[in-house]
Specification:
It is a single chain. It contains 5 helices and 6 strands. The chain is an alpha/beta fold. The strands form 2 sheets. The chain has a 4-stranded mixed sheet. It has a two-stranded parallel sheet with strand order 3-5. α1 runs parallel beside α2.
Length: 103
């Protein structure tokens, strides 16, 4: 848990899975069940070292969960501000292609 510069509370869950694995709906459903209700998150952020399935992305979009998967992790590590990643439309970004800056 932490706070963003604007004061909003952020709750983060990280999954370090092998690159060949994926994050599915069950992981996100569990996180969604506690991030806001138990921890009071304004921003629930789920970070994964692998891909997130299309169904899990749809679930996250419906429940306003923020996803940072293996592709976006590189941007964050490279200096992109987390606040810039919070505004991405995860419902449209789940096509398992490498993203490039400005896309």
């Amino acid at each position: 848990m932490g706070r963003l510069p604007d004061g909003r509370k952020i709750v983060v869950q990280c999954k370090r899975y092998a690159k060949h694995r994926t994050v599915g709906c069950p992981d996100l459903q569990k996180f969604n069940g506690t991030a806001r209700s138990e921890h009071g998150a304004a921003i629930p952020l789920f970070v994964a070292s692998c891909k997130v399935t299309k169904q899990a992305r749809a679930f996250a979009a419906r429940h306003a969960l923020v996803l940072v998967d293996v592709d976006l992790l590189g941007f964050w590590k490279g200096g992109t501000a987390l606040t810039a990643l919070l505004d991405l439309d995860i419902g449209r970004s789940g096509n398992n292609r490498k993203l490039t800056p400005g896309s």
